[in-house]
Design goal:
By secondary structure, this protein is of the alpha+beta class. It is built from 5 helices and 4 strands. Strands 1, 2, 3 and 4 form a 4-stranded antiparallel β-sheet that branches.
Length: 150
């Protein structure tokens, strides 16, 4: 399948990240060497994520934080214009403390990206909206929901 070829390309080092991987329980079980970010887009029942190699934990963490930055920015009312309101972080050393600010400065928050890229073809609804009151935001996966040993 196409996904198998892409996961093989990840394992061979031909690509560093795959956008469009389905991060679900099936993928976690049958592609144990691949790490999936939180979903960045939902299409029907598909939860599209960024896929990286689990062995490269620092890169996987970097991809995770860059994926979460636009969502955090939207939740906190931070836009591309106000990107300096994003926190400085020391996740990857002081040289990258502006990581989140620079990500938002470059592309904006999730809503800005969605409107710029997808809204012409798709109305933002359902799982592609913020998870807000009364149930959210949810900052961590539910225990046992990702196949963790429980």
């Amino acid at each position: 399948s196409e996904d198998e070829d892409i996961f093989l390309a990840l394992e061979n080092g031909d690509i560093d990240v795959y956008a469009g991987g389905e991060g679900d329980l099936y993928s976690d079980v049958f592609t144990p060497d691949v790490s999936f970010s939180k979903p960045y887009f939902y299409e029907g029942v598909k939860a599209l994520s960024l896929a990286t190699l689990k062995a490269d934990t620092q890169w996987s963490d970097f991809v995770y934080w860059v994926t979460m930055a636009p969502i955090y920015a939207e939740e906190n009312g931070i836009t591309q214009e106000t990107s300096d309101d994003m926190p400085l972080v020391n996740l990857f050393g002081t040289d990258l403390e502006r990581l989140l600010r620079d990500a938002i400065h470059a592309v904006g928050n999730y809503d800005e990206m969605y409107r710029r890229v997808l809204e012409q073809n798709s109305t933002r609804a359902g799982l592609n909206t913020l998870n807000v009151f009364p149930y959210g935001p949810q900052y961590y996966p539910l225990p046992c929901a990702l196949g963790n040993n429980c």
